[in-house]
Amino acid sequence: MSSAILLGAGALHAHASINRNLSDENLCEIFLALAFLDVPSRARPQGWFLTVNGVCRRWRYVAVHYAELWAISAGSFQSDDMTDLAIERAQGSLLRFDGHFKDPVDPGYALTPYQLSLLETHQDRARSFVHDEFMEWSDMLYDLRIFRKLEMARIWDESGPDAWPIDELIEAPALLGLYMNNVLVPFNAPSLRYLRVDMDNPDWRSSRDLLGTYETMTEGCEATERVLPTVEFIVLLNRLPRLERLCVNDMPPLLAENLAPVSELHAKLPRLRVLHMSGKSLAMGDFLRRLVLPQDAQIYIETDVMDGTDACEPVLLNVVGDAIRSHIYDSLRISRTLSYELLLQTWSSGTNSAPGTLDVTKPLEHASPSSGPSFSFRIPGIGRDTLKRDENNEPILPQNVWEWNGDHNAAFYEKDVARPFYRRLRVLLPTYFSPFGPFLALRHLDYTDVPWDGATFLYSSGGEMGVEPSHNIIQKCSSTCTHLVANWALLSRLPFDILKEYHLAQHVEEVTIVNFPCAGFPSQKRYNEEINAKAWNHLYSCLSYRAEAGWPPLALRLAESDSEMSNMARSDEPEYIHTITGPYEDAVRAVTQKGYEKVAPYVNSFQDLRIHTRF
To answer: Is 408 exposed, middle or buried (0-12, 13-18, 19+ CB in 10 A)?
Structure first.
């Protein structure tokens, strides 16, 4: 609610019916919401106070006597006098020193020097403190030593690792959420549930910005560590028996030397539900091995390949290989994102697992993961030199090719960009050449958003004809699968014999084809006789070929994809113009029925889950 509206309401009639119908409790709830939405800032230092104070006498009276309102704003006003007034009006309530909003250019919250000094005065009343600016915290925290009521803290530190002895603890028995930037404060926080640590090594993220111009980023402060403090981290985690969510971002590149074996140095996290790790670090695989997690934990890994290779560091590669082949996962999704990243996701279909990515910018305590185990692994799908650039150094992106338009140059470029994706995917499957395949429990495979790298090619030695790597990889991944989800944009470009041998193989019982025969809806292509006949004929050729080989019929399902790649393709579609005489829905169903009758002898069931309406 804007201050202009509230001030206008006050000027018109302070006793308007809506105001009379609001109880004091209702007003208090409104004030609390305003205090969180309209935090005082450098541009608007009074924040919510100006809004509430300008409506009417009753609002001012209720606000003045609402202690909790002032308690949550104890650290929000930049004025020393307003800070003292807020603490006075808070009476005996616990105080939140959460800072004022800095500005959109430099987002975050900061406390004034005076408010920082009040942490010592009100040590036993501090419910939270937030200061998103680097400072030396060690002297202050070691002077105070204990925060009996502290529930949440955000700390950016430049003291350096030597300022925090591993065995000198800061007691915080009520602490629930903790964010630390560039520091591992040795808290003893047995109640902690949410922990995020940014190791302040953001340079690796810049190098993964494949669509931008890479520039090395400067470090956040002079105390940045280049070696992951594995021992200190493990010791800290062992003091957090109730930890449910752990985010470790921007891990430094180096692994500490002379570490004890995993059997002697590890952390047991029996209640952890979510683990997120990111960075280009030789320590990542070792650190992950030292975490003893529940089987139903959800794990997210973001990293990069080693320079000059298509592989991650060896220990991490082994850990990832073991994870994605675990017997607890029966579903695998392989995809390329809009930013040309390779994303592997595994989960258990028998639970409510929902594989995805974790938004680490949101407060940890505000995110509720679905239940069930999952594992997500993300690396760049191409090298920085793969994409061509124009005269302005802007990347030239391959077209979102859903139907080949005869442009051979575009097709060759599309294949060139796709091949590094499959090279890196192949490295992630270390048992790729095993006759048993890389997965044992896998039953469901979704490769809706994999890129097209062609159908056949000539080997350089002897000119022998073979298939592109994508088909071998998909065949290996699906060697135990009975359920497939694939994109018609890929399948439609393959000869029906390759489609049969490498995709709709003998063991497949059910296939879901998305975006058949096109990605856009509503679209004239959805009822175009020629386009639909071509699609159904191609599918018929493959299914009849399977039947000739004596293979059993399969269940066929047509569906829409809501992935980012499909949505991007839809955005390229022109706006639909209805030019036929009959209803859109009838036209779509008519061509669908005709196509289904053609393939009906070769399927044991059929479901059409696509959107058939114009609206």
So the answer is: exposed
